[in-house]
Write a structure and sequence with these properties.
Among the domains are: 117 residues; 92 residues. α1 packs antiparallel against α2. The protein is mainly alpha-helical. It is built from 16 helices and no strands. The longest helix is centred in the N-terminal third of the chain and has 24 residues.
C-alpha cells in the first residue's frame, strides 16, 4: 500500500472511532467510552509505525474534545471519570506526538492539560503516563534536574507503587535522568530497581495500548542510553544489541531509535566504519515515512560526534555526503 493511502486509511480509522454517531443529546454510557478508547488504540498503532507527527496530534486532540463534549451527558459519575480518563490519554497522546516531533512548547501545554484531566479522572495510570512524558520533555529542553524530578513523580503515583510493571518504567526513566546529570551511582541503582521490578511484573495482565512499547527490550534500550551517557560505551553497545534482538517488528520507530543509539555507542568507541553502517540502517527502517524531529535530532548528535572524532576518515565523509539531506529534512 502506498504511504499516502496508508495514512489516509489510518486517519480514517481514527476519525471513525472518535466521531459522534449522532449529534442529538443522549445519555452517554460504557459503549461510548469503549468506542472512544478504540480510537486511542488506532493512534498508538500509527505512532509505533511512523512516529509522532502533526496529523496524529490533531486526531488526538479531536478525540479529547469528543470525550469532553460528552461529560455533561454521562449516565453517572463513574462514566464522567472514565470520559476524563479518555480525554487525558488523548491529550497525552497529542503531547507525545509533539515531543516526538520536537514541538516542545506545544508539548508542554498538552502535558499540563493532560495532567489536569488525569486528576479529574482520578486515573493514576494516566498520571504516570504524563510524568513519564514530562521527564522526556525536560531532557529535550536540557532541564535534566527536572527530568529526574519527573521520574520521581512517576514513581510516586499509585499505580507505580501497586504494579511493578509501571514502577519499572518510572525507575528506568529516572535512571536516564541521573545518568545525564552525571550521578553514576544513582543511575546504576535506579536501573537495578527497574530490572528487579520488571522481573516481578505480571506478563499476562491487560494494560493500555500506550504502554505496550515497554518491556525487557525497552528497558535494555533505556539502559543503553544511560550507560552511554555515563561513558560506558561498550556496555551501552551490548545493551543496544539486546534491545534490537527483541523489539517487536511493528515498533518501527523504536527500532530505528535504538539503531541510532547503537550507532552513537559505536562512534563513541571510535569504531567509525561500523558506526556509519549502523546509522545508515536508520534510513532504511524509516523508508517511506518522514523522520520524526526527535530522531532527526539524535542523528544530528551522531553527525556532530562523527565529525568531532573522525573528521578526516573517508567513510565518515562518505556517510555525511550521502545522508545529510535525509536526516535534516522535515
Amino acid at each position: 500500500m502506498e504511504r499516502r493511502n496508508f495514512l489516509s486509511a489510518a486517519t480514517g480509522t481514527v476519525v471513525a472511532a472518535v466521531a459522534p454517531v449522532d449529534s442529538r443529546p443522549s445519555i452517554v454510557g460504557t459503549s461510548d467510552v469503549i468506542r472512544l478508547r478504540s480510537g486511542l488504540d488506532a493512534l498508538m498503532v500509527l505512532d509505533a509505525s511512523r512516529g509522532g507527527h502533526e496529523a496524529l496530534e490533531r486526531a488526538a486532540l479531536a478525540g479529547a474534545d469528543e470525550a469532553l463534549g460528552k461529560v455533561r451527558q454521562a449516565a453517572s459519575q463513574r462514566i464522567r471519570q472514565r470520559l476524563y480518563s479518555v480525554a487525558a490519554n488523548y491529550t497525552a497522546t497529542a503531547a507525545w506526538a509533539a515531543i516526538d516531533g520536537r514541538q516542545l512548547d506545544r508539548a508542554q501545554a498538552r502535558l499540563d492539560r493532560a495532567l489536569y484531566l488525569a486528576g479529574m479522572a482520578k486515573d493514576p495510570i494516566a498520571e504516570l503516563r504524563v510524568w513519564n512524558s514530562y521527564a522526556m520533555l525536560a531532557h529535550h529542553r536540557d532541564s535534566f534536574t527536572d527530568a529526574v524530578d519527573a521520574g520521581y513523580a512517576a514513581q510516586a503515583t499509585g499505580i507505580a507503587r501497586r504494579d511493578p510493571f509501571y514502577g519499572s518504567l518510572a525507575h528506568a526513566r529516572t535512571a536516564v535522568g541521573h545518568a545525564t546529570l552525571g550521578d553514576r551511582q544513582a543511575a546504576i541503582r535506579s536501573l537495578g530497581y527497574a530490572e528487579e521490578a520488571l522481573s516481578k511484573a505480571g506478563q499476562d495482565e491487560t494494560r493500555p495500548s500506550w504502554i505496550s512499547f515497554y518491556g525487557a527490550a525497552e528497558l535494555m534500550a533505556m539502559t543503553a542510553i544511560a550507560r552511554d551517557r555515563m561513558g560506558d560505551s561498550a556496555e551501552a553497545e551490548a545493551a543496544s544489541h539486546k534491545a534490537l534482538g527483541s523489539i517487536p517488528a511493528h515498533f518501527k520507530r523504536n527500532r530505528a531509535l535504538a539503531t541510532a543509539r547503537l550507532a552513537l555507542c559505536q562512534v563513541h568507541q571510535r569504531d567509525i566504519g561500523q558506526a556509519t553502517a549502523t546509522a545508515s540502517e536508520v534510513f532504511s527502517l524509516m523508508s517511506g515515512h518522514p523522520i520524526p524531529g526527535r530522531m532527526r535530532s539524535l542523528l544530528g548528535d551522531f553527525y556532530r560526534d562523527l565529525i568531532t572524532l573522525a573528521p578526516d576518515a573517508p567513510v565518515a565523509r562518505e556517510w555525511i555526503d550521502r545522508h545529510r539531506s535525509e536526516w535534516s529534512r522535515p
